């Protein structure tokens, strides 16, 4: 897949991804290193929490989402470079055996006023489980390179 420059993105574009199956051992390993709370580490301890069973750390979900993004067809020129989030939430837990995939929608495309060689795209990425329930929703602002030789007027008014 060829890298996409700012001029290649349009409001309303939707991108999909491959899938990741969440393994119990991976939930525990990530938690042991980065988020060592009982509901991420031990099934018995997790049973009596608000999760009612073992659940992946939200940060583990975010890391798996990042992997799916990198492997997806989005491929912004310069890489997936975040400039911040407008929204980031976890509406339901991720469980062992869940199969995650992404749907990403371009919400806005705009050239930078101060850096003419780049711009920003605003993208909503929803991480879905195997029954199409959202487990993470984020609206991110991504820095994307402009096509060499392009003019700012070529993409004005796209969002």
Automatic annotation (TrEMBL):
Looking at the record, the residues that make up the MaoC-like domain are: 19-113
Q: Name one Pfam family in it.
A: MaoC_dehydratas
**What sections of the sequence does the record tag as coiled-coil?**
none
Q: Known SUPFAM superfamilies for this protein?
A: Thioesterase/thiol ester dehydrase-isomerase
User: Which top-level group of life is the source organism from?
Assistant: Bacteria
Q: Which CDD domains match?
A: YdeM (cd03454)
| UniProt-recorded name of the protein | Ketopantoate reductase ApbA
Q: Which organism is it from?
A: Mesorhizobium alhagi CCNWXJ12-2
